[in-house]
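Proteins fold reproducibly. Look at a concrete instance:
___
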Amino acid sequence: AFLLARRMTKQEVLELYLNEIYYGNLAYGAQAAAQTFFNKDVSELTLGEAALLAGLPQAPANLDPLNPDPEVQAAVMERWEIVLQRMVDEGYITSQQRDATLAAGLTFAEPPDVPLRAPHFTVYARQELEALMSDLGYSPEEIARGGLRIYTTVDLSLNTLAQETAANQIAGLAGQNVGNGAVLILQPTTGQILAMVGSIDYNNDNIDGRVNVTTSLRQPGSTMKPFTYSAALELGALTTGDIIWDTQTVMGDYTPVNYDRTFHGPVRMRTALANSYNIPAVQTLREIGVPALLEIMSRFGVESLGQDASQYGVSLTLGGGDITLLELTRAYSVFANGGVYVPTTSILCILDSDSNIIYQYEEGCPTGNFTDQSQVRQGYGTQVLDPRIAYIIGDILADEPARQPAMGAGSSLYTGSIASSVKTGTTDNFRDNWTVGFTRNVAIGVWVGNTRGEPMVNTTGLTGAAPIWNTLMTTIYGNNAYLNEFGVDGALQADRMDQPPGISRQSLCFLRALTDPALDCVQRVSEWMLDSPAARWNGQGLDYPQAEPIEPDQPPAAGPWLREVEPDIYRVLVSPLPPGSVILQVAPGQTAPPEPLYCQVPIELQGSSPGAREQLFMAPPPYPDDAARA
């Protein structure tokens, strides 16, 4: 710096600086910025235009005049006004000139076509590069100076496939007011972003094509439900064998409804999650509390929701909070990884101008020299969820027969011999469609909608986003050139994780077969259940409690008049009641509950109750009002 100051004047140093620094949108130097933003030579800029450019280098990634996002535009205009005011304060212009400049406004050039095959990924990778280099101790000036060689994670053939697949699907939905789509493809084990399509056409202003929807906040709909059930299993508030009542539920001013506008009575977790029933998910979050869901989302890498539970209600499990497609797909990768969270990355290798390795991720540098300053990182991740819970959730989301009542047979969620797990989501008024699914090798997240949030017409996650997801998953698995890109250390993994220890199949009554009078369980199903309490997160890792194993309930040969024979199913000695034998009184204006059909009989009175018999009953909902409706 001393020698440079002796060779050059302050004016020359400033000129050199302004002609080298980054202004955003791939524009380096003031002349390039003038051409990019105003289609002018730098000498032709007006006062307002020059003031706008002067404010951009502070944060070119966030201050993008060509980004139509209203929040970005507001930040750009605020920065512009600050520069003009500083010019008044320093005596370069008068307040009248400032006011006239603000009144005249700005007219930007039409954004040039970006000659990039993966523009949204490129912009995202540039931002990650700047953050990464800053973390490594490099200044913004050093980063902007150039001379670096960067190897990224993107596979251009996959990115093109995702772009074309999404564009074809959106074209077919144009009559339903569907204008845009976004796709993210990850390698779950390493967190590498192999494809990032932020819109179907980067250069189409009619759909705000430059907005990267994979990193934009949207409501995720029912894709939140697997996290709710994961938290319930972890806390021990629910097992896969417990009964959840899908009945009319009123919670103050909030009355949740199912997508099909019907009630399905008693269901278990597999049926509720596979068919995406809303009321059981709300009842589950009602039981565990909103803070528990926020905590597990944070643990899975979702930062957008925060930790302030007062901002949300139980509708959070139905998508009542904003997150990004990148966060959502990364969170689903935790299930793919057997409960391991791996941060996502777009950068594999950074080399300086002398081919020295500045940074390497997962052996990502094909060339270069290691030095004492080289930073090497591996994508091992952190175990944030009991692998047994991850296995169960993945198994439910892969269960084609279980989801058929709501999704139909052979829907776009079915991938044949590919052992994939998948979940859809649809927000109110059809504003957002989602499908997120995975194998151990591939995780794909898809969004369909309109960038500005205009509602679509009768387009759901199943009909809007799922066909894109299905085409991509089956195409990748049908082409070894694609599939081999997802190998780790040169090898692919089995599509499904192996059954972890501490989990076993248990026989349970098939709930639909329990009809009155249920004297015995005439039909049974098999379900995965934990053999011991789940591991819990302690803030840094998992604690595996040293507790007694969970033993399946075994009914005694002779016992009391009420005993639980399996989760939430009781054998009860009862005597039928004649119709009209019980008069139920309720407060004025209230609806009387159904008349009871049976009277519970103590075992010692069985001899004096000749009509008494043992029957099976399901436990009612835990909330009295819900029990009356059930």
